[in-house]
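REQUEST FORM: STRUCTURE PREDICTION
Request ID: SP-0412
Submitted by: Lab K.M.
Chain count: 1
Length (residues): 109
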Amino acid sequence: MGGRLTLINFVLDALSTYMMSLFPIPPGIINRLDSIKRKFLWQGNKDRKGYHLVKWKAMINEKRFGGMRIKTLKNQSKALRMRWSWKYSNENRSLWVRVIKAKYEAMIG
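STATUS: Completed
RESULT:
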């Protein structure tokens, strides 16, 4: 279980985080990716169905609350979008902010 948990936290989350940092992910895709993580955690690469010994909501809790601290993609996606909004409003001198403002503010008015 420890190896699978490590793979979930460092590989599966890294792939989705990269995509979410560029594009918003539709809710259906987020649900499917969470389902893949759940199945991988409980059954690994076995063909047989694994037993779910703990509820998924307990697994995504912080360790101090008895969970395994598996990230939920919905919250992670929202946090990344909020981060970009914050960076856009606070980094007025950055090249990427100036390019976006020049391109899209000209369209608005």
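NOTES: The chain has a mean pLDDT of 77.
Reviewed by: T.R.
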